[in-house]
Amino acid sequence: MAASSLIVKNVCNHITLTPAEQEYFVSLLQPMELKRKQVLLKEGEICRFSAFVTEGCLRGYSVDNNGYEHVLSFAPANWWMADMYSLISQKPGILYIDALEDTSILTLSKIHQQTLYKEVPAFERFFRIITENSLVAYQQRLLDNLSLTAEDRYNSFCKRYPSLINALPSKQVASYIGVTPEFFSKMRNKLLRKQ
After folding, report:
1. By Cβ atoms counted within 10 A, which residue in 13, 43, 114, 195 is the most buried?
2. Which superkingdom, per the lineage (predicted)?
3. Facing residues of 81 across strands?
């Protein structure tokens, strides 16, 4: 499926657009190719766009004072990603966003997003839904991290990202669920033996 068709289908899951509105929306998008490990956004930069993944996978993460990475989220194909705090506040961001593999994205600048709100008001509803879904996901993730066992957090990861279970390096999954790669390896082996 062509990149523009994929993003239009994603949007039209939430709002109805005329063919002219679809065309206008696509005209505002900027395609971008990222190589594996290429950084799209660094901590401290202001996030000025939302990224829609058409192929590949992005990850959003922070780095602590000891240099450890803490993965907050992944965006495989057909997912949106941004540093929401920075995008909304237009203050320096707290996340790094990079490509876990060669990745194709379509970006929509904050300025073009504002233009869309005026020209195609249905997009206000679309981005409200996307923002609400993001808020719910982050709240659920926070509660999971506070109350679930590592095994349950892994099961939650599998439900949220079924296409990534076998696609990601175990180091990335371990970082997402908040355990060391060694612990994750032992835990996964134990789970596989149970099956």
Report:
1. 43
2. Bacteria
3. 51
Secondary structure (3-state) at 180: coil
User: Which residue's structure tokens are 């509660």?
Assistant: 143
Instruction: Looking at the structure, tell me whether residues 155 and 86 fall in a common domain.
Output: no
Q: Token pair of 187, please?
A: 């835990």
Q: What is the pLDDT of residues 59-92, one digit of tens each?
A: 999 999 999 999 999 999 999 999 999 999 999 9
pTM: 0.92
Question: In the block, which residue shows the tokens 């509803």?
Answer: 125
Predicted pLDDT at 69: 92
Is residue 89 within 8 Å of residue 113, measured between CB atoms? no
- 169, 121: one domain: no
How many domains are there within the chain?
A: 2
Q: Decide if 83 contacts 94 (C-beta within 8 A).
A: yes
Both 157 and 103 in a single domain?
Answer: no
Q: What is the side-by-side order of every strand in the sheet holding 80-81?
A: 30-34, 103-109, 49-55, 80-81
Q: Name the residue range of residue 55's domain.
A: 3-146
Distance CA 137, CA 160 (A): 9
